[in-house]
TrEMBL record:
Residues 17-480 form the Aldehyde dehydrogenase domain. SUPFAM superfamilies: ALDH-like (SSF53720). This is Aminomuconate-semialdehyde/2-hydroxymuconate-6-semialdehyde dehydrogenase. One of its GO terms (molecular function) is aminomuconate-semialdehyde dehydrogenase activity. It comes from Sphaerotilus montanus. Keywords: NAD, Oxidoreductase. InterPro entries: Ald_DH/histidinol_DH (IPR016161), Ald_DH_C (IPR016163), Ald_DH_CS_CYS (IPR016160), Ald_DH_CS_GLU (IPR029510), Ald_DH_N (IPR016162), Aldehyde_DH_dom (IPR015590), OHmuconic_semiald_DH (IPR017628). The keyword Transmembrane does not apply.
Length: 490
């Protein structure tokens, strides 16, 4: 059986216990994962501290950028290994993992190398009453040892989205991937070793949250900052842990995202776009649209077209290029999603498509499959309209006016993403700017430029990452202020 070990101070080490890594497409075990104990997490943090105090913490931008390019190149050289590990851990279709997850794993390093090299320093010239001036400029320095905790839905993409800028800024990292998806993170540790990243700069520990590696990282005073992607409830627990030693946090959390479709949209593009926004990665993307609002004149046609398209999603062997819909991440997560389907029925929903468990044959008969599902008829107060399901499901409801659509979309305690479909430029700007979210897309969804701010409002997160926002979070900033006397004065 394949073994996924911890990577501490430049070496792969066994854990204190082992747990099973399950392929959600088949329900079969694919690897044994070595759970790190408290002492091993402490050793990883101590190794990180030594690394930041050593040459790595004093390395130049040019040196670090070169290292990030080497990491990106090595991920690409081992593209197929990463692809197979990601598919084994998630069951996601090869078409998706090869177009999104693995390329973004490499791109995250390359883009942050470029951003680092081109990032300006902030500076201000201050005029003083006596004719003197002051020149202020802010320098970024490493924060120290950064704890990175990531989820299972886009394992390599979301881990590297945080590891890359943390390393770019000269920090050391102690990373913990989700217990459900340890594969590509372990390969990333192999990459770090292969490219010669100094020992202790990147450490990887496997395990769970409470009472395990996740909690050991977040409660350790040796961790200088915590960056986390996952559920809002977990974010809240981590925030409490971070408060103890007053450490900064950056959180990308859950969503209950709206799609707003106006009657003047490009109808086919909107149907295609909402299909993608609701069902990509089996609905397990934090930015997925679970609430779709369609303007009344096109509402019936839209629901019909969406239901027709759902039937064309193909489940099955993730390695078959024709497969477009994978399983859910685990038996437990499928139970949660199916419980929401039951709840939706109790709350009065009409199931326009899906709603059940498909019968797959052969090795995939024990996978954690759920049909892509479209529901209508729920009141906005229904729990299924308010809570994040994180599965292949959207609810479609009609609206009449622009003001009503904005109010419906914003009526949530989350605030991650929205997507607006219209051909009218004025409507597009007005509505997109009115969305209380981190990302408002117009006639598109999950279209990413990694230089832009990314994050969530309300329950969806704390802070923004991306571009300079990442550099600022992963840096300790010192403002230097120099007084320049006026000529002839002191
Ligand atoms: N906003 C975003 O960018 C974004 C991106 C992806 C996923 N998500 C969200 O993530 C969720 C799905 O991922 P998940 O189920 O893996 O999330 P999760 O919160 O259950 O787990 C995420 C990570 O946190 C660890 N963890 C759990 N409890 C912990 C604790 N008390 N202390 C420290 N670590 C702990 C887990 O082991 C895992 O590594 C969804 O809510 C989704 O919306 C958000
Ligand atoms: O599931 C959530 C997806 C988040 C995506 C990103 O963080 C990104 O594209 O950088």
């Amino acid at each position: 059986m394949k073994q996924y070990r911890n990577f501490i101070d430049g070496r792969f080490v066994d854990g204190i216990r082992r747990f099973a890594d399950i392929d959600p497409a088949t329900g079969r075990q694919v690897a044994e994962v070595h759970e790190a104990g408290a002492a091993q997490v402490q050793a990883a943090i101590a190794a990180g501290r030594r690394a930041v105090q050593g040459p790595w913490g004093r390395s130049t931008v040019t040196e670090r950028a070169a290292m990030l390019y080497r990491i990106a190149d090595e991920i690409e050289r081992r593209f197929d290994d990463f692809l197979q590990a990601e598919i084994e851990d998630t069951g996601k279709p090869v078409s998706l993992a090869s177009a999104l997850d693995i390329p973004r794993g490499a791109a995250n390093f390359r883009v942050f190398a470029d951003i680092l090299k081109t990032a300006p320093l902030e500076s201000f010239r201050t005029d003083l009453p006596d004719g003197a001036q002051a020149l202020n400029y802010a320098v970024r320095k490493p924060l120290g040892v950064v704890g990175v905790i990531s989820p299972w839905n886009l394992p390599l993409l979301l881990l590297t989205w945080k590891v890359a800028p943390a390393l770019a800024c000269g920090n050391a990292v102690v990373a913990k991937p989700s217990e459900e998806t340890p594969g590509t993170a372990t390969l990333l540790a192999e990459v770090m070793q292969a490219v010669g990243l100094p020992e202790g700069v990147f450490n990887l520990v496997h395990g769970f949250g409470p009472g395990s590696a996740g909690e050991f990282i977040t409660t350790d005073p040796g961790i200088d900052a915590i960056t986390f992607t996952g559920e809002s409830r977990t974010g809240s627990a981590i925030m409490r842990a971070a408060a103890e030693h007053v450490r900064p946090v950056s959180f990308e959390l859950g969503g209950k995202n709206a799609a707003v479709v106006f009657a003047d949209c490009d109808f086919k593009a909107a149907v295609d776009g909402v299909m993608r926004a609701s069902f990509l990665n089996t609905g397990q993307v934090c930015m997925c649209s679970e609430r779709v609002y369609v303007q009344r004149p096109v509402y019936d046609a839209f629901v019909k077209a969406l239901a027709g398209r759902v039937g064309s999603l193909r489940m099955g062997d993730p390695r078959d290029a024709a497969t477009t819909h994978g399983p859910l991440s685990s038996a437990e997560h499928r139970r949660k999603v199916l419980d929401y389907f039951d709840l939706a029925r109790e709350e009065g929903a009409t199931f326009v498509a899906g709603g059940g468990v498909p019968a797959l044959s052969g090795p995939f008969s024990d996978g954690h499959w759920v049909e892509p599902t479209i529901i209508t008829g729920l009141p906005e107060t229904a729990r299924c309209q308010r809570e994040e399901v994180f599965g292949p499901v959207c609810h479609v409801a009609p609206f009449d006016t622009e003001q009503e659509a904005i109010a419906l979309a914003n009526d949530t305690s989350y605030g991650l993403a929205a997507t607006v479909w219209t051909r009218d430029l004025d409507t597009a700007h007005r509505v997109a700017q009115s969305m209380r979210v981190g990302q408002a897309w117009v006639n598109s969804w999950f279209l990413r430029d990694l230089r832009t701010p990314f994050g969530g409002s309300g329950l969806s997160g704390v802070g923004r990452e991306g571009g300079l926002h990442s550099l600022n979070f992963y840096s300790d900033i010192t403002n230097v202020c120099i007084r320049i006397p006026a000529a002839g004065k002191r």
